[in-house]
Amino acid sequence: MSPLPSPTASRPPLRVALAGIGVVGCGVVRLLEANRELIARRAGRAIEIVALSARDRHKDRGVDLSAYRWEDDMGALVTADDVDVVVEMVGGADGPALTLARAALGAGKALVTANKAMIAHHGLDLARLAEARDTPLKYEAAVAGGIPVIKALREGASANQIARVYGILNGTCNYILTLMERERASFADALAAAQAEGYAEADPTFDVDGIDAAHKLSILAALCFGTKLDIGAVTATGIRGLIAADIREAEALGHRVRLIGMAERDETGLYQHVQPCLVPADHPLAYVPGALNAVVAEGNFVGRLFFEGAGAGAGPTASAIVADIIDIARDEYGPAFAMPVDALDRAATADAGARVGKHYVRLVVEDRIGVLAEIATAMRDAGVSIESFIQRGDDADGGVVIALVTHAGPASAIHAALATLSASDHVVGTPMHMPILAL
Amino acid sequence: MSPLPSPTASRPPLRVALAGIGVVGCGVVRLLEANRELIARRAGRAIEIVALSARDRHKDRGVDLSAYRWEDDMGALVTADDVDVVVEMVGGADGPALTLARAALGAGKALVTANKAMIAHHGLDLARLAEARDTPLKYEAAVAGGIPVIKALREGASANQIARVYGILNGTCNYILTLMERERASFADALAAAQAEGYAEADPTFDVDGIDAAHKLSILAALCFGTKLDIGAVTATGIRGLIAADIREAEALGHRVRLIGMAERDETGLYQHVQPCLVPADHPLAYVPGALNAVVAEGNFVGRLFFEGAGAGAGPTASAIVADIIDIARDEYGPAFAMPVDALDRAATADAGARVGKHYVRLVVEDRIGVLAEIATAMRDAGVSIESFIQRGDDADGGVVIALVTHAGPASAIHAALATLSASDHVVGTPMHMPILAL
């Protein structure tokens, strides 16, 4: 049995070094200072910051760091004798973050990271290093910010076979989609507003193209399915292709558009894909507003679990990082991906085209005789059966908007029909298609 | 650092005895059988049922238990050398459940329980026993069924000062409220339907009077505020006083009625109360349908966390119980209430009357001259300021329904006004009042 701290025993402080003192790093400093006593009671020992390191010591960070030792060289955090835990907040899948993480684990120090890209790309190697040195590797902040979803899946739902894990994993996209919904805005206008308000970066690629969500999805999938992390198998379609009419038609159909990262295991393998979907109004993901994140896991005994909270920001991210540190302080941790790396399966990539479901399809077409017939023929030839069809007669983006919903069928049929139609001279721009989330 | 299982080391199975083989007990057997291999991978060792005990061995339970050793005497589970973990599913705050729990912990065995009443009444004593013997006491299934909310609060949100913890803690009441909403049913009809469908018991007191929710709330409060469990300080108002018009008027005001258990710490002490509330449509609790449960925690760094899932039933409850067993198998556990019992504060009971907020008030009155003036005068004399007032002119329960919403003010003023009005000959039945949940 594990060592339960005796109420009278006084354990030595856990000594923490922070690498990368940006918005999140400052949040961790503030949190550990503000909740110091409470954390010591909960952790059974004090948690002390002993050293900081970042590129620029003299940047004004709006928080007084003068009480802490500063190391210009991040490597010094790893070699220091008085550091038990290294917190990596440098960012980037490779480079200094990875060098630091490897060195810390290799030196037998505990590693806490918020770095989804690094975990998605190198999580298995880092977990092996951690196993070899019997030291913790924790990354709660890497997925869904402040929501303790890594813990909920690794531990809370651990008795279940998970059928699907999915959710809203990128707050920037959800903020943009919420703006498009509420303001009837175009994607470009909503993106510009999100940038102006600090919810989207100047180069929004990582967020709006689904790359960030793909990183997080790969981590959730490994935890839920006991499979080896495989970021190369995750595909992503972002939200750039959405137009205002998509949001409006989705609503008319009783749905909301959300960027969903979905992982599901079927007989062909593991499906991991990020794409905009139509979420039915009676699904809780339809009510996740603004920059929030939410994760759903469906277990064979527990049924549907739903977790919602802030997916980013200094406070929520710091909350997740410090929760990891408290777990370490309590000696309550184990293998990073719930089981040793060698026990994880290597999953085949599922045949995405074989996935059966209803789809929303939207085309912008020239308003001329024969276009409807062309669409209907392409659908028929590809074997797509149409359930409903809407042409409102209003223009958008240089043409007429046609939206339709298919009967349940394989995604490959939709792709084939749209490949035909994309080549048509009468179709303007790229057709949009989104699966309708099955309850 | 805690012992991380080496990938090659083979740990001995964790041996589990189940006491109380009802719906939940059978669920645990089914789960451990169905997910046996997966659980062994995740736990790092096999989890084996070695013995069962319940009052009636020969009852048909719909599951084959012949492979397991049966003990007619529950005490034999505690004295058996081959039992590591005793799972208590007997139920009841005292009696055989408590005797078993004390004996198991006293014998140094791990105890897993789904028994909210026992934890609410005797959790501190049991936690002391567990501490004295350095053995785990786990109770994830006691609150919100399959939702891993004990873990989320004890560990996931552990870095935060929690401002409020609250939620829908009783699925039976939420099912009844959802029926009243959808079918425009009376409380009595909705209760009868819930009973017919197995969602409510023949004697529904425990559920509809808020007692079950109060037990769960007391546990959440202790975890979130680091206070000693104090079920005597929890007050509860159930949902029997609701009429169809309350649900309708709440909707007209953009709200839904939910039975909310709320714990909040203020300068006067700890407030712990279960009562029906008006939940604004832009709060996620407004979208929790049917028998689901949901818990909200508001932390000073993480912001608002929201967890939803099945609050009862064999599968979800078994999921929570087995998650606890897996934590024990992994040696990932610590003090039952996040810190040793002696480190928990003893909180004063907050002055509930001083709580400031907006309220919904509904009266059924005789349709005669002067009644409105009587209401207005009683409100004025008690210092209650009225924001809106609705009299639709339709009858209900032998009178005319009058609903009003107050400006923010102390609850004591509402209570004073309603005490006056309850004594009036012109008021039919008992006035209803509900706080409007502040976002």
From TrEMBL, chains A, B:
Belongs to the homoserine dehydrogenase family. Its EC number is 1.1.1.3. This is Homoserine dehydrogenase. Signal peptide: none annotated. It comes from Sphingopyxis granuli. One of its GO terms (molecular function) is homoserine dehydrogenase activity. NADP(+) binds at A19, G20, I21, G22, V23, V24, G25, C26. Residues 360-432 form the ACT domain. The lineage of its organism: Bacteria, Pseudomonadati, Pseudomonadota, Alphaproteobacteria, Sphingomonadales. L-homoserine binds at E201.
